[in-house]
């Protein structure tokens, strides 16, 4: 049951997080085992005294006290184990959620949203039982070990009789741990694949309905079910086989101990009470059934922790602690920037300068890398080579807070996060204020429709209208409220009606606009309003100039806009 360092470290951190509770659980579990080990000796002593007609009340009372103590300890163990599991699970979920968000788009690229949810929900809950399972295994091991020691104390021959079969038990447990680990890993992997396919289908319900492929997609999502069932059955078979072997071996060992005890009784080396105690200790020592259960639980928890460890092993982007020069104009510079997606180099050694306070429109055919370049400009993703600087500071050198306050983004399909509409617009603001939110909403032409909502800005975001244009206006309002020195609009006006688009474009690109703006432009009219246009083609910047210059000189540039562009450009 070897552990990679990430998984081991994660479980150690989780145990440390619940340290006192884990220590208390270990203590209670070991105390339970200790009380369980004392009971046979006390019973044997009481029996001997009763058989000899000697006063045995004290020993009978000790036996009763031990039984009561065992009941109390058992209750404590249940409560401690339950709360420890819950705390550890919460700790793991917090840690992995934080890391997934720190990874940004890379997390979904590498694992897929469904698989991530499966890991965060199912695997985290299972991994959360690891510290409790470790404590339980410790106690379950203490039982057999204590049983053998007690047998040795009664008579060394009893321990020797038991130990002849011990190697068999060790082999049994080792093969159980190994086989269970493989089956559980297979099972959890298949579960992750089903979750991925389901998340994809949930995101594409409209497409599935429009295509009328619901049955086919349900079949596709559940296709790995037989594999899941095979992995599940394999898991039960492994455990069943181990339990069956244990059931075969344990009574033989028990019998051997009782036979030796009987022989020693006949030679007057043991009393009847000793035989009773030895018989019970032999049962404790052969408690492999308990061990099988505990070991399987621990293996399942560790396998689940390994899946969380895989997510944590993905390196998150680091941030420096530098600040931007105060009152910088938002001068953006890309130096030799290259970025790959899949096997393709989408951007190849791109150099680009956007002087502070100006607007640059990114133009290019579909798939040319406009969104990728827009993402690189505000460090939503990092380049594979080259660097991006804002006001002379490389983006990775900036502190996270400084970077996020300096660069605002609006997207074509913004995620509306937060509780109310007001929260959605104020998301991420250092000093949110109602006035700032309303002003931003007015600039984005969202104020009028928000005020018409039943509770205005206090309307739950789930109840707010979500048409493409309305969502885009809320997303734009969020970007405007941020008042960063760089504003990046990635196709953020595409769903607006013509009048609204004109008003928003005027606010963003008109004379009154402030800061530097990077706009992904699909329409010639938008490109024409920018100070400069960068034409992306085949991974490179083919030309930089005003729209009018590029339009006049370059037929390839005109072709990007097609027939509609000919009219707008003209
Ligand atoms: N996760 C990914 N895996 C593989 N390729 C990707 C991934 N994301 C983007 N790409 C590819 O990178 C290229 C650039 O994508 P990008 O979204 O930047 O293009 P774009 O110019 O904005 O296109 P559009 O105008 O259609 O939005 C495309 O060929 C795209 O298929």
UniProtKB/TrEMBL annotation:
GO terms for molecular function: ATP binding. The keyword Transmembrane applies. It is found in: Cell membrane. The keyword 4Fe-4S does not apply. It is a multi-pass membrane protein. SMART domains: AAA (SM00382). Residues 332-563 form the ABC transporter domain. It comes from the Bacteria. The chain crosses the membrane at residues 21-39, 59-84, 135-154, 160-177, 242-266, 278-299. Keywords: ATP-binding, Membrane, Nucleotide-binding, Transmembrane, Transmembrane helix. Residues 23-300 form the ABC transmembrane type-1 domain. This is ABC transporter ATP-binding protein. It comes from Streptomyces mirabilis.
């Amino acid at each position: 049951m070897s552990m990679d360092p990430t998984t081991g470290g994660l479980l150690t951190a989780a145990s440390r997080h619940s340290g006192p509770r884990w220590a208390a659980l270990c203590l209670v579990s070991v105390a339970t085992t200790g009380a369980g080990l004392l009971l046979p000796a006390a019973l044997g002593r009481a029996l001997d005294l009763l058989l000899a007609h000697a006063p045995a009340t004290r020993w009978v009372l000790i036996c009763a006290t031990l039984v009561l103590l065992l009941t109390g300890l058992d209750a404590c163990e249940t409560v401690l184990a339950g709360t420890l599991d819950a705390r550890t699970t919460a700790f793991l979920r917090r840690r992995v959620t934080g890391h997934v968000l720190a990874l940004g788009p890379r997390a979904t690229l590498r694992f897929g949203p469904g698989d991530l949810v499966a890991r965060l929900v199912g695997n985290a809950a299972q991994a959360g039982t690891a510290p409790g399972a470790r404590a339980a295994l410790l106690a379950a091991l203490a039982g057999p070990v204590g049983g053998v020691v007690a047998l040795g104390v009664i008579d060394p021959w009893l321990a020797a009789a038991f130990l002849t079969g011990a190697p068999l038990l060790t082999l049994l447990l080792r093969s159980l741990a190994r086989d269970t680990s493989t089956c559980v890993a297979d099972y959890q992997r298949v579960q992750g694949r089903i979750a991925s396919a389901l998340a994809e289908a949930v995101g594409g319900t409209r497409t599935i309905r429009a295509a009328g492929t619901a049955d086919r997609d349900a079949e596709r999502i559940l296709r790995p079910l037989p594999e899941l069932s095979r992995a599940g059955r394999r898991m039960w078979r492994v455990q069943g086989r181990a339990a069956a072997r244990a059931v075969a071996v344990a009574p033989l060992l028990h019998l051997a101990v009782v036979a030796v005890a009987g022989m020693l009784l006949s030679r007057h080396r043991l009393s009847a009470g000793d035989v009773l105690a030895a018989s019970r200790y032999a049962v404790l020592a052969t408690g492999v059934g308990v061990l099988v259960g505990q070991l399987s639980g621990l293996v399942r928890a560790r396998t689940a922790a390994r899946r969380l460890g895989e997510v944590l092993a993905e390196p998150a982007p680091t941030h420096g602690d530098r600040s931007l020069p105060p009152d910088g104009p938002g001068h953006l510079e890309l130096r030799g920037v290259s970025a790959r997606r899949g096997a393709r180099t989408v951007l190849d050694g791109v150099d680009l300068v956007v002087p502070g306070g100006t607007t640059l429109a990114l133009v290019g055919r579909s798939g040319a890398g406009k969104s990728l370049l827009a993402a690189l400009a505000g460090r939503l993703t990092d380049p594979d080579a080259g660097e991006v600087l804002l006001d002379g500071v490389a983006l990775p050198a900036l502190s996270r807070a400084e970077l996020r306050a300096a660069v605002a983004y609006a997207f074509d399909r913004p995620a509306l996060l937060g509780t109310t509409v007001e929260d959605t617009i104020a998301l991420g603001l250092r000093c949110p204020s109602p006035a700032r939110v309303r002003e931003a909403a007015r600039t984005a032409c969202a104020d009028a429709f928000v005020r018409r909502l039943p509770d205005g800005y206090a309307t739950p975001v789930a109840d707010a209208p979500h048409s493409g244009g309305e969502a885009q206006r809320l997303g734009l309002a969020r970007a405007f409220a941020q008042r960063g020195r760089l504003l990046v609009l990635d196709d953020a006006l595409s769903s607006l009606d013509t009048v609204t688009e004109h008003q928003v474009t005027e606010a963003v690109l008109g004379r009154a606009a402030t800061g530097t703006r990077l706009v992904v432009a699909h329409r010639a009219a938008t490109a024409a309003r920018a100070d400069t246009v960068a034409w992306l083609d085949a991974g490179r910047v083919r030309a930089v100039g005003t729209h009018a210059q590029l339009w006049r000189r370059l037929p390839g540039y005109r072709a990007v806009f097609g027939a509609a562009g000919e009219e707008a450009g003209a």
